Amino acid sequence: MARAPQANKRTLKASLAAEVCAVLAKQPGLRIVKIADGVDDNCSFLSDELPDGIEALDFFHATEHLHDAIAAAYGDSTLKTRHRFEELREVLRDQVGGVEKVIRALDHLRKQFPRRDEIRRCAAYSRKHRARMSYATMRADGLMIGSGLVEAACKRSSRSASSSAGCAGAEACRRSSRHSGWDQSERFEEAWALLAAEYQVEVTCS
Predict the structure, then answer these.
(1) Cys bridge to 191: 9, 84, 123, 182, which one at CB 3.0-4.6 A?
(2) Structure letter (DSSP) for residue 163
(3) Is 162 exposed, middle or buried (0-12, 13-18, 19+ CB in 10 A)?
(4) What's the pLDDT tens digit per position in 150-194?
(5) How many angstroms separate the Cα of 182 from the Cα of each of 24, 175, 176?
(6) Is residue 160 within 8 Å of residue 170, measured between CB atoms?
(7) Domain residue spans in the chain?
(8) Which residues of 105-130 are buried (b: 16+ CB within 10 A; e: fewer)?
């Protein structure tokens, strides 16, 4: 799903929640993996407004913060930064309890470089989201740890729609890009009903 920007993403959240519930009604045995970046609004939406499931901090966002912290210590684009980043990235991704090892490494850097705020922020960020960073366990279960494929699809839909339409037209284009997925999942009629209500207009004939 993709939508034009809106305060607090109200419509997108409602549409997504309705879609997930509709799918689960047909396939209640499906496992849900809820992935987002660390923005509080996104995390609270996943936890409070969607059905229960495994929650994960998008791996790319986690490693982006990790890289910034290491670069703050050793310098951007240095060999030491690249080596240490790749080392800790693999620990985070591949080792059970990897996030705890990364936090310890960041705490060590924090003591070495007490004035580098980026290191402190990354350590706090990792502590805050540690429960969502069990990447090795998720990979062992065959689950996604990143939202990159979904984000890329949404961005492609948004670019193609926005290049030829205004806000209202862009929304129509984005919806049309989902039709084939609904059709292939045999949910077209039901899914269309969820959206059609937004486009009901009272017409008076004189």
Answers:
(1) 182
(2) T
(3) middle
(4) 666 666 555 554 554 455 545 554 554 555 566 666 677 766 776
(5) 14, 10, 10
(6) no
(7) 32-152
(8) bbeebbeebeebebbbebbebbeebe
